[in-house]
Design goal:
Elements (H helix, E strand, L loop, with lengths): L4 E6 L6 H12 L3 E3 L6 H8 L6 H21 L1 E5 L5 H7 L7 E7 L2 H9 L11 H7 L7 E4 L4 H12 L5 E4 L3 H12 L4 E4 L10 H8 L5 E4 L2 H6 L6 E4 L5 H10 L8 E4 L5 H13 L3 E8 L1 H7 L2 E5 L2 H14 L18 H29 L5 H15 L2 H11 L1 E2 L2 E2 L13 H12 L4 H13 L2 H10 L14 H30 L5 H7 L9 H12 L8 H24 L4 H13 L6 H12 L24
Helix pairs in contact: 8-13, 15-18, 15-19, 15-21, 16-17, 18-19, 18-21, 19-25, 21-24, 21-25, 22-23, 24-25
């Protein structure tokens, strides 16, 4: 049983707070106190006279009880019987971290309680005051709720059963995402234990403060790892929300001594999929289950419903899938934007590709804004209106937030103009590029977006180069591109960027035998995540009918054919004018290369064979037959 606990038995007068409180105190061998005994004398006189107390009357009383509760907890615990009818009273009494206070709400129908009070003798509370208490009562959404229309023994048995219950899931790491996910879990009626390390002067009582700040939800807060683990139901489910990299390994090492066979660790951060494969294998050998779950949606998504991409043992998903699906966003049909992705590192690979597509989409929007403003001379408000108009068709979250950004002012000036043009990244875009190189898959738009961020960080070099290379071409004069042509180029780039990302998923699925369902992955990305859009909604159906390369889908072929010239025209025009369009240019090049029956690679193969005898295949021989030529010898 929990030590140094204060149990507050609450409810209207007559529910049996004193009777049950004393039985509870006897059970735990801790003292019992009745809050009524701490009322100042004027309050007692008013109640004897049948006059209800007001908030002013209760102020001193609650302050005294708050002090006493702290004293009792330090002394080893206690049971307090207190009406605590309003939430603001309970918040004042909840001065301790929630793991040290258990609320027990006794209740029943008005008629039941009124009958009890009418039968009491020599008590200053009059039956006629009961209705005022019911009127004032604000039902708590937390704590243990017990209907008292039963015997004291039955009430005690029910209370003890509920007190002994432990948290269904533990969340470790209360950063922005961790806090939001914890609130999401608790708001879905899950009992959640939360843990955050304690570092003097840096991270002090983070978990305890979080619990105090959210008294209406069922949390237990810890800065002791052993106590945190012991607060969880067996087999335990622990969701890690810590920074990717070595930190995850350190946390697992710290957790391991307190874990038992069959316990499950879920890594909800942006870990590299190869680390997840390794951790899953290592922990499996020790009897511990491990899942890598990609979670997208940012702070708001984590709180209201993210997109979740869990990978790992399917048996683990069967155990916690219901919890993850409950907190996930919902698609247009009301289904959770969460699905079992595949074994070992599949979940984190899918999240990595999600972020890669996100890089491409963000850069596309950024360079389109930059083109409109500094090449065509369109002011930010007009660009915002244009993006808003485009988004009636695109329904893109990233385009939506870009509209807000273009309208945000600070002291009358556009805030965007005060932001340094040096983009940061957390690494997932670069990981996608590395994975594509390993799998031999082209990743033009995503890689271009990653490199665009890299070169943006070279601010001082760019300033110096701009002064040295003063390109003065007539084409750089402000020229407005036809809006419909630009929009078609924008759409073509978005489609190609998504096609590239999903092609990488296909290659990984084959390489690692993950059997990824592209339609289901697209569906989980239709809400809650950063790259949600109408295009993603369309891809759910397209991948259901066609599992090959997206650019080979008949509907996509027709659409790309109708807008390809716009893409080429915009890229050609802006590059000639001296404006960088890395992602749109990459999309145009990818499309031309993808649709080229004859490429330039035969020259590459000849060069490789010339200097390295790497051999080549011939067009007039069967595929798989390789040849070598002595290129510098006599001609045949």
């Amino acid at each position: 049983m929990r030590r140094q606990q204060v149990y507050i038995v609450m409810g209207v007068s007559g529910v049996g707070k004193t009777t049950i409180g004393k039985l509870l105190a006897k059970q735990f061998k801790i003292p019992f106190f009745d809050a009524d005994d701490f009322h100042p004398l004027p309050n007692v006189e008013k109640m004897k006279a049948g006059i209800p107390l007001n908030d002013d009357d209760r102020h001193e009383w609650l302050e005294n009880l708050e002090i006493k509760i702290r004293e009792w907890q330090k002394a080893g615990g206690a049971v307090l019987a207190c009406s605590a009818l309003k939430e603001k009273y309970r918040k004042q009494l909840q001065s301790l971290p929630q793991e040290h206070i258990t609320w027990i709400f006794l209740h029943s129908e008005f008629e039941v309680i009124h009958g009890r009070i009418a039968n009491r003798e020599n008590h200053y509370f009059k039956p006629e005051l009961l209705q005022s208490q019911y009127d004032a009562l604000e039902l708590p959404s937390y704590g243990i709720h017990i209907d008292v229309d039963q015997s004291p023994d039955e009430i005690m048995n029910e209370i003890m059963d509920k007190i002994k219950s432990k948290s269904e899931i533990g969340l470790l790491g209360l950063g922005v995402m961790g806090k939001s996910l914890a609130l999401n879990l608790a708001s879905k009626a899950y009992k959640v234990s939360v843990y955050n390390r304690h570092v003097e002067e840096r991270e002090v009582d983070v978990a305890k403060k979080f619990v105090i700040e959210n008294p209406e939800l069922t949390f237990l807060g810890f800065d002791d790892l052993k106590a945190f683990v012991e607060s969880l139901k067996r087999p335990r489910n622990i969701l890690l929300m810590v920074n990717a990299g070595k930190v995850v390994d350190f946390v697992i090492d710290d957790l391991f001594p307190f874990l038992e066979e069959g316990d499950l660790i879920i890594d909800g951060g942006n870990s590299h999929y190869k680390d997840t494969i390794r951790r899953e294998r290592e922990l499996r050998e020790k009897g511990i289950l491990f899942m890598g779950a990609g979670i997208s949606g940012g702070e708001e998504g984590a709180r209201k419903g993210p997109s979740i991409m869990p990978g790992g043992p399917e048996s683990s998903y069967e155990r916690v899938g219901q919890i993850l699906e409950k907190i996930a966003a919902r698609d247009k049909n009301g289904n959770p934007c969460c699905t079992y992705v595949g074994p070992d590192g599949a979940g984190h690979f899918v999240k990595m590709v999600h972020n890669g597509i996100e890089y491409g989409e963000m850069q596309l929007i950024a360079e389109t804004y930059h083109l409109l403003r500094f090449h065509s001379g369109v002011n930010p408000e007009e660009i915002a209106a244009l993006f808003e108009n485009w988004n009636r068709e695109m329904q893109s979250y990233l385009l939506e937030i870009s509209v807000d950004i273009l309208r945000k002012k600070e002291n009358g000036d556009l805030l965007l103009d005060k932001i340094l043009d040096a983009a940061k990244q957390k690494g997932t875009g670069g990981w996608s590029t590395n994975a594509a190189l390993e799998l031999g898959v082209p990743l033009d738009t995503i890689s271009a977006a990653v490199m665009a961020r890299n070169i943006s960080g070279m601010k001082e070099e760019r300033i110096a180069a701009a002064r040295k290379y003063i390109f003065q071409s007539p084409e750089k004069e402000k020229t407005e591109l036809p809006r419909n042509i630009l929009f078609e180029a924008f759409k073509a780039t978005a489609i190609i960027n998504h096609a590239i990302g999903f092609d990488l998923l296909t290659a990984a699925s084959k390489e690692y035998n993950w059997n990824l369902n592209l339609s289901e992955i697209a569906r989980t990305w239709t809400n809650g995540c950063i790259i949600r859009s109408q295009l993603m909604e369309d891809l759910v159906e397209k991948f259901r009918d066609h599992q090959g390369h997206l650019l080979m889908n008949e509907e996509i072929v027709r659409e790309i054919k109708s807008i390809r010239e716009a893409l080429s025209a915009v890229v050609g025009s802006v590059l000639k004018a001296g404006f960088p369009m890395p992602v749109m240019s990459a999309a145009a090049n990818y499309l031309l290369s993808f649709t080229a029956e004859q490429s330039s690679a035969n020259m590459i193969q000849a060069q490789r064979d010339y200097f390295g005898a790497h051999m080549y295949e011939r067009t007039d021989k069967p595929r798989g037959d390789f040849f070598h030529t002595e290129w510098s010898g006599e001609q045949e």
